[in-house]
Design brief:
The protein is an alpha/beta fold and about 325 residues long. The protein is built from ten helices and 15 strands. The chain starts with a strand and ends with a helix. Bound molecules: UDP-4-deoxy-4-formamido-beta-L-arabinopyranose.
Length: about 325
Amino acid sequence: MTVLVTGGAGYIGSHVVRLLQNRGEQVVVIDNLSNGIQERIGDAKLVEIDLAAEASVQTLKDTIKTHNVSAVIHFAARKQVGESVERPEWYYQQNVGGLANLLTAMRETDVNRLVFSSSAATYGMPDVPAVDEDILCQPINPYGETKLIGEWMVANAARAWGLRGANLRYFNVAGAGWPELADTAVANLVPIVFAAIRADQSPKVFGTDYATADGTCVRDYVHVLDLAEAHLSALSYLDRDERPHATFNVGTGTGSSVFEVLEQVRKTTGINFEADLQPRRAGDPPFLAADVSRIKTTLGWSASRGLDEIIESAWAAIS
Ligand code: WQD
């Protein structure tokens, strides 16, 4: 089986590419290398295009036919929440436009299996401790909106022409399965904290007055290797199950506060740093953790790595 992986040179995508290669699958990567790194994908074929460009449909169709692609995993998208607020039109053009081009190419080449990289950002600020996939999604930023619209596009393709898709809603991904595949973007809590302490600075904590156990925000941190394994489970599910499409939370089901993450970083690094306590950051829900019963029941997947392994693997990758 040949799997087309868009965004396969990225942090999460390259972990999935590596697992597919280790399993003996043929992999073709679509990536514009704006954030991706070609060295991450080994001997996988790279087709360097901007998925959102009009001309990409024909290139995608040619690639699918040339390599006899039978399934697609779609990661390629912009994913910075703050940037999406500043540049909403570009986020829609890139994330929604890119997916529209991909679905067009898949339909016209009769490829009907898709694993779609969605996000917990689709939930917005739910007021429940653990979100399940059926609660009302009310994203609070353009990034989350583009991911929810992407899920609607997958559902419409399922109805219109029989696409069988699995939407994976990622919670907070961190860690490294292999040091060379570590997250090089300093855009989320764990890499931001590492960058601060390596520069002998105090990491900022956005808000200590939330209605949580220690006053800081709680998130569901999931190891990138666990997340990558969930993609392979979803791919197998699309082989097995005739249901047109489904949506799955991908998390651990447990939450960790910002202070708990910082304490784990102190234990792992041996650096006894102070935190710089700041006011709340706009748009932060106090608590966001996954109800992971559906993915466990339907795909037989559950996370096997905890916060300690997440922090240890991420720190080892940059030490
Ligand atoms: C985590 C917590 C911050 C930085 C992201 C994106 C998106 C999505 C989910 C995939 C928050 C706090 C952060 C800092 C801090 N993933 N924080 N000091 O906002 O939960 O969401 O992950 O689609 O990538 O939506 O992630 O890492 O920015 O913040 O206190 O310097 O850490 O307030 O509570 P977030 P994050």
